[in-house]
Amino acid sequence: MEKKRIEWLDIAKAISIILVVLGHAGHAYLDIYIGWFRMPLFFFLSGILFKPVLFKNHINWASNKTFRMMLPYFVYGIAIYIIFNIQNLSLLPEHLYNLLYGGSGLQGPYGVFWFITVLLITQLLLGIIANFYKWIQFSIIAVMFIAGHLQVVTEIDWPWNINVVMIAIFYYSLGYYCRNIISKYHDSLSIAFVSAFLAVLAILIDVNGYLDFYLNLRMSSYNHFILDIIIPLLFFMPIIYISNLITRFPIKELLKVIGKFSISNHVSAFTCKYIFQNNIGLQRNDF
């Protein structure tokens, strides 16, 4: 029997997908301020569902998870190229190489593909880390988060955006460690209101030039590890509270479907947005 899904969590994941699309709509402010939290939110929500796995089961678990996540990665990647280049398949090997390498070099409709590999490696890594004592887990994640901000790390174009895992694992593990707290307070209006107030205040401070903050995980652009902890978190509880409110309305059924198949829908939504926005076939420089 299928385990009962958490409605507000699926809805929150759907909202994060919508925010990703909006953030790439070309509006300067949307791109900047939604960028503050859209991908940290996605990793945070995904972490809530993480289940630890024993060392002895890790290889089988990792193999199954890798297959389930990388299958849509390559199916979508190859399908996009073939559909729009059916008359010219000569560059297919080059595109396959770029898909294999991944990372920030993936451009155009492939621009959103980076998060699949980062999410996969993040999950596999936490699957190992979660076997240690809690203080060791926290220490490893903290060291990785700080090291991930080092210039020597961010300047390299790592395959599969591996360097971003050092940042993403913080948000992902936070969802895992705080899931009981989130479950208890996901419908708290007071917490959501205070958090939203502080989030708006941070935006106003930035608009007026008193805050130098920018966050873009795909491009490895993060300039302050303290603010990278604080600011994205301000947006989490308001989104979660709104998601809980939506469970009372019929539209929840559509959003639950979007959230349930978050990876496929994430890629599909971004790809469709790109195609309709540009109304062009894929070219050589789209990678």
Automatic annotation (TrEMBL):
One Pfam short name: Acyl_transf_3
Principal cellular location given in the protein's record: membrane
UniProt subcellular location: Membrane
Keywords from the named record: Membrane, Transmembrane, Transmembrane helix
Domain Acyltransferase as annotated: residue spans: 7-263
InterPro entries, per the entry: Acyl_transf_3_dom, Nod_factor_acetyltransferase
Transmembrane stretches, start-end: 12-30, 36-55, 67-87, 107-128, 135-152, 158-177, 189-205, 225-246
Family as reported in the entry's similarity comment: Belongs to the acyltransferase 3 family.
Protein name, as recorded: Fucose 4-O-acetylase-like acetyltransferase
Organism this protein belongs to: Jeotgalicoccus aerolatus
